[in-house]
Amino acid sequence: MNLKISTFNLKNDHWPLLKTHWSRRKPAVCAFFREENPDIIGTQELKYQRILELLKTFPEYGFIGEGRQGGQLGEYCAVFYKKTKFHCISQGTFWLSKCPHKKSRGWLAMFPRICTWATFSVLDGKLHETGEQISVFNTHLDHISPYARTDGLLQITEFINENFRNQGVILMGDFNAKPDSRALKVIDAMSEENGIFTGSSYRGFYSTASPNGKTYHGFHGSVVGKPMDYIFTSKEITIERVSVVQKKYCGMYPSDHFPIVLTCKK
Fold first, then answer.
1. What H or E segment, with its residue span, contains residue 116?
2. pLDDT of 150-162, one tens digit each?
3. pLDDT given at position 166
């Protein structure tokens, strides 16, 4: 099974008069979707109305997720997937806190933070299930508290280790953390101890590329630096190619982050 996976923080909107408001960026976002055509894409920050707009433009996708304020309220860590390639057999969203089943903040986080996950059954060309499965996790860690980032990531990886061992697992999102951060050491430990997350967009691309590995650019397009967005894969998945798409569409950047696009096989 060959897959194209993407993670993309698509920037929530606050001020309608900004040049970077969604209404002005939407053509660029749609151009990215058309050009890259990912099988699965995890987005961060979009709210429900923006998700509906993308689904209307791209009806081939389904999505799963819940707002971080509960139900349809607040920012999502949405997972979009091609309906002709996948059938969602289980899904969920939990809060990164000591109360994961209800809206809550944890570990000095500025906002409630969530992780959305889904297990997909892979379909063949006739929409029949092939028997293959893959599980996808999408998160957006806190931008202020390093404790929230580290403990939130511990919560996610422990949940995966307890429930998804020896399965094909993908963890993606905006981690708000550099590769050498304490939070990212959680991923390294999980790889060493349990063989989970042996594949990394950082190790797979940035370590062999130029220093142009930055993923947050604040709409300025700067590329020199280290990422804060990542895709991690379990040992059952082989990464073939990783790229950070550092380009404009329709004359502008779709977001203040660059997307990561990863091709892999299971």
1. strand 114-123
2. 999 999 999 999 9
3. 84
